Here is the input.
Amino acid sequence: MIKRCFNHIKFILKNVNLLLIIILIVYSCKKENFYSGNDAVLKFSTDIVHFDTVFTTIGSATRYFIVYNPLNKPIKLSAIRLARGNQSFFRININGISTRELKNVEIDAKDSLFIFVEVKINPNNVNNPVVVQDSIEFHYNDRMQDVDLVAFGQDVHLINAQIFNQNTTWTADKPYLIYNSMLVDSNTTLTIEAGTKLYFHHKSRMYIKGTLIANGTQQNPIIFRGDRLEKWYDKIPGQWDGIYFVVGSKDNVMNYCEVRNAIIGIQVDTLASTLQPTLTISNSKILNMNVAGIFAQGSTIKAWNCIIANCGQFAIALTIGGSYEFYHCTIINNWYYTNRQTPSVLLNNYYQDINGNIQVRPLEKANFANCIIYGNKESEIYIDKFPNSPVFSFEFKHCLIKAGNDLNTNNTSEWINIIKNQNPQLKDPINEKFELQTGSICIDKGDIVVGSQYPLDFNGNNRILDLKPDLGAFEWQQP
Here is the structure.
């Protein structure tokens, strides 16, 4: 009897071992059945998850997207995680698990997986970035794919690829974030009130086909800049594309505006009227551009008390003819990032069309008076006149200029009472202090007729009390 029981136990143990072996074999087969090739490509219901409503809610929102496995075999993801980890504003929820990283996630053949994403932001915290970004990384088979996450960290007016075809006024109640550019359509006016801040996301631009009236004050200027508000980005060029007054735009006014850190700060296309400037700009700063501060093409511009500084190619490029006036402007181009090859000021009256033919346009007027034009190149003005052009009129009057041997300034009807190659002695242009130092050569060197037309400098100081206005946008003040 005891022997029979012992044999029965041996039989059971033998079969249990056999059962375990079978289970292990089946499990191993299942493991090996995961697709392991690095040519696998997951599909996503979206490439970018947007959280537009975070601006106007209490600061939290949830979105979801779907991950598809298009293969005929299951696939195992070694990790699904947020790229910024514990520093992220986001959390992900996978299969009921709220986390910032989940490992060993399986998706069956021809199956899908829902990913829920939550963001928590206090939109009233001004220390948050305007745009909060992260990505969800999917790691598998020695490769990685990701889905971008975009939310908004401050309470702003969101302008997302909008076209304005009715007259609109923007107030300074809270900032405006321009995401994916915007357009002011023909016969439409956008009015921007003093103190308004406009933040532009990367590669975004303001297109003006109608009219822009941006009228700030000395105490409350209107700010145009990129949406990265960390201090490190304060002077980094190329963060957004700029303001573009396209063909047909007219009667634009910018006063006490600051345009910062774009590719081209202000681009002005073909003139709408020979009598009225396409753009009148005054008491404004245009700083830190990759390409140009002001880039005009056959247009009309009138400017005074403006500072254009730190541009990678041109501070002011006046091309394909046109009509231009610049009075009491400070144009300083000490570009620090690369070896700049181009002058601060370019005058040009021709272009080559798509058929290779040269098209010449009249430069009716390019007048600079009581201005400072200086920088770290040997010559900061280039006159690019097509040979034998019938109309190419320019004048530099009572200006301090940087002029190398390649610039002929002998014609006294074009170069009138100029100061050449003298340091203007500005306070601290690197830190955006463009006022004149005591002892500057620019003090009292301006033309009184021009000064009388613009009697107040950028800071509101009277420049004609002594009947000797200074050069540039700032009248020197006795310490």
Observations:
- Confidence is low (pLDDT under 50) at residues 1-6, 25-31.
- The two ends are 118 Å apart (CA to CA).
